Amino acid sequence: MKENITDIMQKAYIDYSMSVIVSRALPDVRDGFKPVQRRVLYAMLREGLLHNRAYDKCAGVVGEVLKNYHPHGDSSVYDTLVRMAQPWVMRYPLVDGQGNFGSVDGDSAAAYRYTECKLTKLSEELLKDIDEDTVDFAPNYKESSTEPTVLPSALPSLLMNGSTGIAVGMATNIPPHNLGELIDAVCAIIDDPSISIDNIMQILPGPDFPSGGSISGKSGIESYMKTGRGIVRTRGALDIEELPNGKQQLVITHLPYNTNRATLVTRIADLVKEKILDGVSDLRDESTEQTRIVIELKLGEIERVTINKIYKLTALESSFGVILLALDRMRPRQLNIKEAIECYIEHRRNVTLRRTQFRLRKAEDRAHILEGYKIALDNLDDFVRTIRASSNRLEAKEKLSTKYSLSERQANAILDLRLYQLTGMEREKIDAEYAELMNIIKDLRNIIDNESVLLELIKSELNELRSSYADDRRCEISEFDGDVRMEDLIPNDGCVVTVTKTGFIKRTSVEEFKVQHRGGKGVIGSGQKDEDPIDVLHTCNAHDTLMFIMTNGRVYVEKTYEIPEAARTSKGRNIVNLLNLQKNEKIAAVLSMDSFESDDSIILCTQNGVVKKSLIKEYRNHRKGGLKGINIDEGDRVLKAMLAKADDHLLVLTKNGKGLRFASSQLRDQGRATRGVRGIRLKGNDKVVNMLVVDDERLLLICGKNGLGIRTKFSAFLPNGGAEGPEDTTPRKRGGQGVTAMNTEGVCDALSVAQDSEILLLTKKGQAVRCEVTNIRETSRGSKGVKLVDLADKDHLVGVSEVVKLDEGDDLVSVEGDSVPSTDQDSFQEES
């Protein structure tokens, strides 16, 4: 008969999937074991490898499992055995191994011909009473013997040691828990079946990983406790030690669960080599059986910053994704913590009930025999005569059974009695044994007939095991939830971010630059000087989010504090180590902001006068590879970027000294990957040099490349030139040629300043001048201006930025409108 190949493949794949799910990958919710784990432990029990006996070769155990129970490869069996013996994997190891069983550094165990093993005392509790009809047995794969379908499991192994496995279309990842807390939670549910999960969490607060460390926050724990899924954030333990030379060293003493120690050390070394952990002077792995990774810090280094970077950039902080999935009645089921414990309680109830019934049958069988003995001893002379008068055993058995109503088993037992058992002393023993059996039978029947007595027995057995095996919690749970933010560790001081022509970036404190008078020589502002002048300069706060807008319209986002801090005269770091720049990309502008949830817009302006407005929200899903912010015409490039509100006015300035003021409302909000519209009409070889958001309460400072500058009102660019009247705030229309702003053909840059603002001027040769704008007299639009900086030969001005405003009333420093903690004002020394 012909069949469709699709139907055959579908049926075969479903069969394969169910086989993997049921027979290999997922644990049983009752005993917490996968089939291969259960078979390894049962084979060791049958081999007699108990905790108080000698070790035996692991090869023998693997062979026994393969021979009788597990028709798969030897590696899967041995790997399972090894895992159950590793104390950094199992919270409560089930196999006692002797020899090389691997390490937390990721070293594999020695071959099974070299290692030895036996059961631990705790694992014997999981196998205890297995021969008392407590669980069902099934034929093995070759039907030569039987194997248990589940273990009696006197302890809740599924939650005690956890489990992990990947099936087809589903996976499980259950963390280990503290045994004492777990038993208390089981008893609490037995006492009050309606107990809430919140109350259970008061008893069982969360996982207890064997590696120690800590868990950050309780939201992930609460999620998996209530739904069966959640993400638990684990952290290794890190201590700070003081050294005699005044330095400090960080010592990692515990690792997150399932973290490879050698890989962690290598990762930290790579970060040091890449100068991301630039505060580390030495790294040593002094670990033995206990973890001890030493990270020595440079003198004066802030240890909190390095600690946070290690947590953020290495596996010392990891996420454990909990999926509480297990087989319940041979069906995969996602459980919450209460359901998982209830399944275990039901299993123990069935095991205890079956064990009690088995013991009752055994006691009643023995009592039945003793009752026959008592009849025989009460009628001893007659029994002896009847037996002597019989011709054979069968005749004697029939006569005794008929006369005294004995069962066949009683008659056989009496005929098997030895003569010494007819003495008076032996008769007293029989009476005493019978009386004891009657009490045992009474107790066993009481357990079977009363559910409350049965549950109390389960509780008492669990509490007895708790006193023997429970230990203290190793993993701490902190109330704090989420990342430790760098903002909490780094002062929010004013910064100057500079990027050179060749792409070296650095962050420098504003304290590095001293206040000077207008026309001063300035100080060295860059370590590059003539060969690599400053190309981009931006002042901001250390906590700000920076947007780097490229000349090709691509946008990258990074935190200010992630930019390496360097001295004023240092070279900085190549920007390609900070941003994932594409080939030949160059920074056009830098913006700083607090959040992407603002209703403000980002306005981009190109060299050829194209202007485009987009909402900040368009950039909130930023990524390391950058986002496209504008489509650029061939031969054009992005020149400036700024943040603006819906009712703001914009001022575009060109190289030839033209200026055009228009309302941002004349620009519609566009998506990121669009071109924009014409902002100003250019003549000849004129190009745009800057675009500003108008603030009529401030003044416009225009700087020429020749070191001259003017300070004038923004209202001078209105149609009536700022005259009083109702039309005073009416802007011009977008797309016009504008009016003369400064009488020069070499405008360098422009800036919106207040009366008490301070500015930072940088020249091509790297000179920096910091001065107060009050030294620059206010002039009318269209003038040539006054001297701002004394330029050397062949030098010219390349950039200007507002630095700080000293607010003596509040003792704050304001950097571009954002308030940050005050700096030491005494460090701003006057210098001519």
Structure description:
It is a single chain. 28% of the residues lie in helices and 25% in strands. It contains 17 helices and 44 strands. The strands form 13 sheets. The chain has a 4-stranded mixed beta sheet. β38 and β39 (767-772) form a beta hairpin. The longest helix has 42 residues, at 337-378.
Features:
28% helix, 832 residues, alpha+beta, Gyrase A, domain 2, Topoisomerase II, domain 5, Topoisomerase, domain 3, 17 helices, 4 domains
Helix and strand arrangement:
Layout: H1 5-25, H2 35-46, E1 56-57, H3 58-68, H4 74-83, E2 95-98, E3 116-119, H5 121-127, E4 137-139, E5 146-148, H6 157-161, E6 163-166, E7 171-174, H7 179-191, H8 197-203, E8 214-216, H9 219-227, E9 229-235, E10 237-242, E11 248-254, H10 261-273, E12 280-285, E13 293-297, H11 303-313, E14 317-323, E15 325-328, E16 331-334, H12 337-378, H13 380-389, H14 393-404, H15 408-415, H16 424-449, H17 451-469, E17 476-478, E18 494-500, E19 504-509, E20 523-524, E21 534-541, E22 545-550, E23 554-559, E24 573-574, E25 587-593, E26 601-606, E27 610-615, E28 627-628, E29 638-644, E30 649-654, E31 658-663, E32 677-678, E33 688-693, E34 699-704, E35 708-713, E36 739-740, E37 747-753, E38 758-763, E39 767-772, E40 786-787, E41 797-802, E42 805-807, E43 812-815, E44 818-820
